[in-house]
Write a structure and sequence with these properties.
Radius of gyration: 20 Å
Strand order of the largest sheet: 8-9-10-7-11-12-13-14
Number of helices: 10
Shape: globular
Strand content: 15-25%
Largest sheet: 8 strands, mixed
Distance between the termini: 39 Å
Structural class: alpha/beta
Helix content: 25-40%
Length: 337
């Protein structure tokens, strides 16, 4: 890395909604420099750079990847392009944070991981859910057995999409890659890799999965997941233990509250508790960054912070979202899609 140890110069590839949210999330982060933007449409890159305060907008992708003023690239292009763009960035010596799902398959993900490791460059799947403080607190509560031994986790996720725009399976727009990957990732984050799984999948005539039901088997509990792009689900999570339960409300991918209920129906309010632990993020979550109209963007803020922390320490992957877990999750996705 060539930049000052305190400053990390960001490039963003892609100019869609998630890229806009991520650009906003960089605002106010100490040491985060908005350096460059690129898009398959150069005009979009210019518009984006002006709107969100980036220093440069590149006319070609190759110029963007070769820009010596960029330390790390956030890749926010369509899933079908993730592998190609990740490899181009790594071959140019750039660290990468790639939007979920990491790639379309285990094979594509493996090639990216191998390239990052062979070059000694930071690489992480941008699974922003893992960096939400309530999700992280949930893991601690489970490990500390606040609700006893785990019996089950139930998650439903999905929002209605236009089925006419799904394309082919290789376009990466199916229910599991678009939405189900969040629930699988949550299970891995909380419990590790399952011992076995069962699934039922409903597909379009072209073979794209639109409705999926998955059961993950662990030694003493189960995880049930439903994912759809043919309707809108509850998008919440219920975790049942022998001494109580945890409810993570919609959207569980980046919640702003959480409820723990004991078997005696005594509710523990965790919003204030987590607010105290976070300090500067306390009541409300938008208080530190008033430009955020969506408090759920806290997950994006936290994953950007983690990326910069790792880069400053010289780490090539994050212990919160390790590459081996991205690979294991993709291997499971390959068997479900």
């Amino acid at each position: 890395m060539t930049s000052d140890i305190q400053n990390i110069r960001w490039g963003i590839l892609g100019t869609g909604q998630i890229a806009e949210n991520f650009a906003l999330s960089l605002t106010g982060l100490e040491g985060a420099v908005k350096q460059s933007v690129a898009s398959r449409n150069p005009n979009n890159a210019v518009r984006f750079s002006q709107q969100f305060g980036f220093a440069n907008a590149h006319q070609t992708l190759q110029d963007f990847f070769n820009d010596p003023e960029i330390d790390v690239i956030y890749i926010a292009t369509p899933t079908s392009l993730h592998q190609e763009h990740c490899l181009m960035a790594l071959n140019s010596g750039k660290a990468i944070l790639c939007e979920k799902p990491f790639t379309r398959s285990w094979e594509e993900a493996y090639q990216v991981v191998e390239q990052s490791r062979s070059r000694g460059l930071f690489c992480m799947e941008a699974m922003w859910m893992r960096f939400n403080p309530f999700i992280q607190e949930c893991k601690q509560l489970i490990q500390q057995k606040h609700i006893g031994d785990i019996c089950s986790l139930n998650a439903g996720i999905g929002y209605k999409k236009d089925l006419a725009k799904l394309g082919q399976p290789e376009d990466g727009r199916g229910a599991m890659l678009v939405f189900g990957c969040y629930a699988l990732n949550l299970a891995f984050f909380l419990f590790g890799e399952p011992q076995n799984h069962q699934c039922q999948v409903i597909r379009t005539d072209a073979g794209v999965d639109v409705n999926c039901a998955v059961i993950l088997g662990y030694p003493n509990h189960t995880v049930s997941i439903t994912a759809t792009i043919n309707g809108t689900q509850s998008n919440d999570v219920h975790i049942v233990g022998t001494d109580g339960c945890i409810h993570i409300p919609s959207p569980f991918i980046d919640p702003t509250s959480m409820q723990v209920i004991s078997n005696q129906a005594q509710k523990i309010g965790l919003t204030e508790r987590i607010g105290r632990k976070l300090g500067r993020m306390a009541k409300p979550l938008t208080g530190l960054f008033p430009q955020y109209t969506n408090p759920a963007r806290i997950g994006l803020i936290r994953e950007a912070e983690e990326t910069m922390r790792c880069l400053r320490l010289g780490l090539t992957e994050s212990p919160i979202m390790p590459l081996n877990e991205s690979l294991a999750i993709h291997q499971l996705l390959d068997t479900i899609q």
